[in-house]
Amino acid sequence: MERFSRLWNWILWAAFFAAGFYIVLTGGQRLWKGDLSGLIRDGKAAIQRVCQREFARCLYPGLLWEYAKEEDAASLADWYIETVMQMHPLSRLACGSEQRGGTENASTYEMLVTGGVHDENELDETGQEYDMEALAQAENEKAAEKKLEEEQQEEAAREEPPSEEAGAVTAGTIYNLEELSDFDFLFGSFYTLDKTTTISPEELDAETLLAKDMSIDKTVEGPQILIYHTHSQEGFVDSVPGDNSTTIVGVGEYLAELLREKGYDVMHVTSVYDLVDGKLDRNEAYSKAYKEISGILEEYPSIQSVIDLHRDGVAEGTRLVTEIDGKTMARFMFFNGLSRTKKNGPIDYLYNPYIQDNLALTLQLKLQCEQYYPGLSRNIYLRSLRYNLHLSDKALLIEAGAQTNTLQEMLNTMEPLSDILDKVFDP
């Protein structure tokens, strides 16, 4: 009996040894197969699995109580890790973003990680729920305004405008078509491109832009030029509070008078679009301006050019001035909106059929200024949005001077500005 028991034990040990040898041999072949990269990949997956398991165990330790309710889980560990990862908000949001490919989801994920937004259940100082859409829009607009101000300050510094003590400007320059047909020369000499947008040589083809007829028919009955101010509250270093004649509105009226003297019928709209309940609010200024000005254009089809006159905002130490014929004048800048962002391309909801016409008008005016009043105009500024320049093929947005200029410097500038407008509108 004892001999039989020993034999039986020996058989069992042999069987276990053979089975172990077989498992090691066959398992090693399945794991290795001469594929080192596969072995490393599987090793990484195993390590990741362990990390996920430990993370899940620490994050939601009580979740194991629900395991009995799940019948499809391959194992306790599989069910536990999958459930925890599905519950975690960052994991769910990242997964949803990958599945839908949406940039909005990606940006939301980033905001959640950085904590840069208000919680939906959080109340403001008045006890009301936050308007999340309005907050996001306000933050975007504030950031955009700050960025534009910084870039305009950099551009103004690069141009190094003459100080108000400078002498009279030198004779102007007449550029020929051969020079202007060189895109690099044209773009480098006359334009500043905002980082938010792009422009191609096809769009800035000098021959095409200079061939466009930008003239105004003075024989048409009714107003032919309309001047307005999206930002009517823009003032100067010596503006008098409450006196519109000392702000950009007063400067616009002087420009209108000068153009009337040259034979144009000019309408000057002095409506206010940037005040809400007596406080400065420019969030909807362009929308409000568009609503009124488009209605006026329908009422007066004789209007052929629409001019939105602004003043720029620069650092307090910056002086945008030059001297012409003994007069100190504020420098000005023509502004074009391209309805296109560098990141996403054309902005369909800001469609403008007159982009090429707008570009043609500013280039023709810029060249006239370089010929007759060199140093008075800054580079043409190209930006991504529309700025109501779709109101007319001869729509203009002009940034004249800045808050550091005096009212008289601004008024002095309107004289050469009216002259170059006349040279293009009535060549």
Key attributes of the depicted protein:
seven-stranded mixed β-sheet; elongated; 427 residues; two-stranded antiparallel ribbon; 13 strands; alpha/beta
Task: Characterise the protein shown here.
The chain has 427 residues and is of the alpha/beta class. The strands form 4 sheets. Strands 1-12-9-13-6-2-3 form a 7-stranded mixed sheet. A two-stranded antiparallel sheet has the order 4-5. It has 13 helices and 13 strands. It is elongated, with a radius of gyration of 35 Å. Residues 28-32, 64-73, 93-133 and 160-169 have low confidence and may be disordered.
Q: What proportion strand?
A: 5-15%
**What does the average pLDDT come to?**
79
DSSP summary, beta strand count: 13
Biggest pleated-sheet summary: 7 strands, mixed
The secondary-structure class comes to alpha/beta
Helix and strand succession?
A: HHHHHHHHEHEHEEEHEEEEEEHEEH
For the record, give the distance between the C-alpha atoms at the N and C termini, rounded to a whole number.
127 Å
Rg over CA atoms: 35 Å
Gross geometry: elongated
Number of helices: 13
Low-confidence stretches: 28-32, 64-73, 93-133, 160-169
Helix share, percent: 40-55%
How are the strands of the biggest sheet laid out side by side? Answer: 1-12-9-13-6-2-3
